[in-house]
């Protein structure tokens, strides 16, 4: 279907920045097609002790966190960064494992998933594909009219992924481009929550 669809209510997106090592960032952003607002963001860092106890502990915790975020915020779509092809094989495989449990959680919760390359996210948010982490944090803060710079940078990256999807979806609707279109659910205006870093 190629007709332009009007947004009804707010489109809510869960953005995730998966990490092979270190925190996995997440952020909830919603838009009415004109304005974007941040609802919640943070990063999940699995303690080294827990990772030593069980080889799959980090994957289990990421899966649980994503399921809980979907249950709590009911996003219309999930946007996740794709695997960066320039990574070494070991890092790429670890990152693919994390992405795998994220995709599994989305499928189990019946949420549509969209994948974006890191350079695509940077170009969408910062205007060029070579923006550094500080630039991304400042642009995310500006685009979401936040009072403080989102920390850690993993959370800012997750918010950027969500913004990238919202911009892409808005262009699809405006120009009637083909592709899977997620219809927004009518939502009441909700208060934005602050950052959260979870240490397990």
Description:
The protein has six helices and six strands. It has 200 residues and is an alpha/beta fold. Strands 5-4-1-2-3-6 form a six-stranded mixed β-sheet. β4 (77-81), α3 and β5 form a beta-alpha-beta unit. α2 (57-73) runs parallel beside α3 and α4 (118-126) packs across α6. The longest helix has 23 residues, at 153-175. The termini are far apart. The model is unreliable at 1-8 and 180-186 (pLDDT under 50).
* Molecular shape: globular
Tally of separate helices: 6
The helix-and-strand class reads alpha/beta
Number of strands: 6
Order of helical and strand elements: EEEHHEHEHHHE
Task: Enumerate the spans where pLDDT stays under 50 for 5 or more consecutive residues.
Answer: 1-8, 180-186
Helix proportion: 40-55%
For the termini, the CA-CA separation is 45 Å
